[in-house]
Amino acid sequence: MAKIIFITSDSEKVELEADSGSVMELAVQNGVQGIDGDCGGVCSCATCHVHVAPEHFDKTGPASEIEQDMLELDDDANEYSRLCCQIEVTDALDGVVLHVAK
Amino acid sequence: MKKSEFSDPFEQARNEQGIGHMNDQDDPVTMVLGLKDVRKCAHNWKTFQSGAKPGRIVVPSEVNIRDTRQIPFEVDPPEHGDYRAIVEPWFKRPLEDEYRAKLRTQIESLVDEVLTKDDIEVVGEFSLKLQSRALTLLLNIPYEESEVWIGWGTHVFRSEGVALDGDKAAILYDYIDEQIDRAQANPGDDLYSVLLNSEINGRKLSKEEVKGVMILTFAGGRDTVINAVTNSIAYFAEHPQALSRLRDEPEITNRAVEELIRYFSPLTHMGRVATEDTKVCPHGHDVKADSRISLCWASANRDEKVFENPNEVVLDRKVNPHVAFGFSHHNCLGATHARQIMHILLETLAAKVGSIEILDAKENIEDLDQFKRKVGFDSINVKFNPR
């Protein structure tokens, strides 16, 4: 079981727990504002953009090349950006803080 | 070749030049073919604008048959964002349980009906009906209104053999004018009324603006949905194991929807107008100010630099960064509705249909000058067999 903390653009803190699936699915199931996941998690729509808290970036690792290609055209992207449909929930994520980009 | 096989006519040009050329009504188009290049140009609205003369960014151009600006489609940022914010919540309604339940009822009853017939022409007797009935949900108007649209035939703008048909377009535009007047006289909770009551920058939307949104809603979701549905039926006819797989592994349904939409790319391309002399692609092809480019979604979605086995339907393709719904600011407003249609259609076919036989098919080949692309079928007769 991993605890995942979302901070929305309204600075609302949402703490959720899961042991499988993707971070995007967890966020959508719980109505986290700013995570839409329009494409259902196939890395096509870029509506699940988060900034990983820099001190937690080793928990998620960096974006894949395909993710980076999407993110480089996103005006809100930075070096800690991820599309969270591409982050699988595992114990390694426990305690991670994700700032919702939108 | 199998009926459901859609080859990639752009491969050689994409790899060798990165672009293609199309002369459309003496307003030539430089077609951008690679996925990365398409995304970059779609994102760069300052250099590649949508807010040109109404109809010009559509290929084939509609400047001779339409004066009304489609909204938010033919508007650039920042105004684009203001319009989009007005319509976005409405076009997300397909995510609501009640909407999905109604859509499921429509699709299940249509599938039940075709299962009793010996010979169904899919485009006219299945896809057009499905698309028109579903549109009553998107507009939030009575189901019976779909009979009017079904009566218009499969194409709003295109007649058989004629790329642009001004008379057909006039039917739609006159109809929308009437409906806006009706909603103004007698407001309800339909899309026309909601738009008439919407405000942008402190003023009400004008009738012309409402008309612009409605034309987009009708035209953008007609051929595209019809082709996605029809082509998917052809695919399942020739891949019955895909139906049984969806039955056994319903968790892959979302991936299957995205993959079918990538593979069929119902909208081949969309234009932009250059606002300055510029270049496209790593090869640096010149594009002159006030000339057109197109963002070729269909080519980008077969880009072998990004997709493994791009010319195969990989039903459970996990990472699928396709651009079939466009990319960046102008991504498809109707995508939520379209995805729900496809998702429920696949679930319903898997649950009820054992096999589909293709009896006869006539392909619809788009003529893009340098390229000929199969985009769907003019007609395809099938027999649906129950499980």
Structural summary, described in words:
The complex is a heterodimer of chains A (102) and B (387). Chain A is globular and about 35 Å long. Chain A has one domain (2-100): Ubiquitin-like (UB roll) (Roll). Chain A has helices at 23-29, 57-60, 65-71, and strands at 2-7, 13-18, 49-52, 81-83, 96-100. The mean pLDDT of chain A is 96. With 102 residues, chain A is an alpha+beta fold. In chain A, a hairpin with a 5-residue loop joins strand 1 (2-7) and strand 2 (13-18). Chain A has a 5-stranded mixed β-sheet. Chain B is an alpha+beta fold. Chain B has one domain: Orthogonal Bundle (Cytochrome p450), CATH 1.10.630. Chain B has 14 helices and 12 strands. In chain B, the strands form 4 sheets. In chain B, strands 1-2-10-7-3 form a 5-stranded mixed β-sheet. Chain B has a 3-stranded antiparallel β-sheet with strand order 4-12-11. A two-stranded antiparallel ribbon of chain B has the order 5-6. The model of chain B has no long low-confidence stretch (mean pLDDT 95). At the A-B interface, helix 3 of A face helix 2, helix 12 and helix 14 of B. Chain A: Belongs to the adrenodoxin/putidaredoxin family.
